[in-house]
Amino acid sequence: MTTTTKPATPVAAPAARRLGPGALALRQGRMEITQFLRSRESVVFTMGFPIIMILIFASIFHGEIGGGVKFTQYFITGMIATGLMTVSFQNLGIWIPIERDRGVLKRYRGTPMPKWVYFAGKVIMVVAIGVAETALLLLVAVLLFDLKLPDTAAKWLTFGWVSALGVTACTLGGIAISSLARTARSGSAVVTPVALVLQFISGVFFVFTELPNWMQQVAALFPLKWMCQGLRSVFLPDGFGGQEPAGSFELGRVALVLALWCVIGLALCLTTFRWTTRRDG
């Protein structure tokens, strides 16, 4: 008597778990942060530049700008603003052309991953590095130069929204300007001069009201000047608002200009961003 064995029912392999939009963005953000930290040059320049500059300037200028306020207390506002601009505008404007030239963006576009995830990863990286950089800068200034931190919740709130709007405008600007670079090597040549000029005319290295009037007018067209002005309202006494060109810190106008630059930057990104080099078509 022969017995027959019932064929085993095949067991379906478990379906691969699909990541949701938030998980995709976080994974891309972690990858961007990891890549950033692996580049020693980027870490040293982006994280170290504001700290090195405040160490140099604070060591040279020991005096006060008036009203019992040290020059360091004024200078920190420009260093925070330029640090955020460096990690967003300058960093993205240089690295995106490199990724485009190496074909990284072309491969991204050919994958099923939604295109917005790539940009979300860049934003997460900018925010994470920007927060770390700002915290480190404040720590150094407090420990070495007796920096006085904001003493009210309102000033911390202003610090938050000025930084958020400013870094958003600079991030979108960095993505937009990345399309001007024809090759990986030209990214730095396109972005760095723009960043340096904006720093010099926006009150980063000098007291803004001591700059020529025409220079102040040009600086007022760009977000860095308004970032510095908004941060001055946080770190300087309220009475210093009277020394601004308009006689006040103009926080309403600061918010308006930075928000407008966010809209302009987004429009430029949507209309000019390229996933491939010109030679690839």
TrEMBL record:
Keyword field: Antibiotic resistance, Cell membrane, Membrane, Transmembrane, Transmembrane helix, Transport
UniProt GO molecular function: ABC-type transporter activity
Domain ABC transmembrane type-2: 41-276
Signal peptide start-end: none
Subcellular location per the Swiss-Prot or TrEMBL entry: Cell membrane; Membrane
InterPro entries named among the record's database cross-references: ABC2_TM, ABC2_TM_bact-type, ABC_2_transport, Nod_factor_ABC_transporter
Pfam families given in the database record: ABC2_membrane
A GO cellular component annotation in the UniProt record: ATP-binding cassette (ABC) transporter complex
Keyword Cell membrane attached: yes
Its membrane topology: Multi-pass membrane protein
Protein known as: Transport permease protein
